[in-house]
Amino acid sequence: MKNIIHFIFLIIIIFLIQSVNLKAEKIVYINMERIMKESKAGKKIVNKINETNQVNIKKFKKIEENLKKTEQDLVTKKNVLSEEEFQNKFNELKKNIDEYRTIRQNTIQDTTKKRISASAEFSNKIKPILGDYASKNDISIIFQKKNIIMGKSSLDITEEILKIVDKEISKIKF
User: Fold this and answer.
1) Cβ of 107: how many Cβ atoms within 10 Å?
2) pLDDT tens, 88-105?
3) Distance CA 7, CA 51 (A)
4) Given 35, 60, 65, 126, which is the most exposed site by the fewest CB atoms within 10 A?
5) What H or E segment, with its residue span, contains residue 137?
6) What is the pLDDT of residues 74-92, one digit of tens each?
7) Which neighbouring-strand residues pair with 141?
8) Helices 40-76 and 83-136: crossing angle, nearest 10°?
9) Regions in the chain scoring below 70 on pLDDT
């Protein structure tokens, strides 16, 4: 009977030691979106993509204006042109509109791919920094803030990582 009590007591002690070890793990979180938006390197990436996007928007607005102007000209000439000539010009306009939509859609997809690629590259540059930070500060796990429902603000390491990223990655070209 004493052996059973000792055995149960030993199991309880082992369980308590395991529980203490689990609580000793250091877990923090980081706001990667903020790092991307506010770091020097992240701002470069975002600005470059936004500039390309603005150029594309201007280009597409100009094409749209030309297509609308062509459509209006065709409508005003509808009564003057023969039905066959009108239909040919209408088909040509329709073809131009279809080409415009295809080009616009391809450009949007290309911009999205570039944005994803740049984010992935930026993330790959940050991973070694996070690994080094974690090992120096005895951190077991780093979560992204977007995956956390609630957490102490003292566990947020975004500000510290932002400073390190600005120092380390700003030298690297994207």
Assistant:
1) 16
2) 988 999 999 999 999 999
3) 70
4) 65
5) none
6) 888 888 878 888 889 889 9
7) 27
8) 170
9) 1-3, 6-7, 9-10, 13, 15-24, 170-174
Residue type, 32: M
> Which residue, chain included where needed, has tokens 């701002």?
43
What tokens appear for 54 in the block? 């603005």
Rounded to whole angstroms, the maximal C-alpha distance in the chain is 111
Amino acid sitting at position 8: I
Distance of CA 37 to the CA centre of its chain: 10
Q: If we measure between CA atoms, which residue out of 27, 3, 4, 20 comes closest to residue 151?
A: 27
Q: Are 32 and 144 in contact (CB under 8 A)?
A: yes
The SS3 of residue 43 is helix
pTM equals 0.67
Q: Which residues contact 136 (CB under 8 A, 6 or more apart)?
A: none
Give the span between the Cα atoms of 147 and 26, in whole angstroms: 17
Nearest-angstrom CA–CA distance, 65 and 62: 5
H or E segment at 143?
Answer: strand 141-144
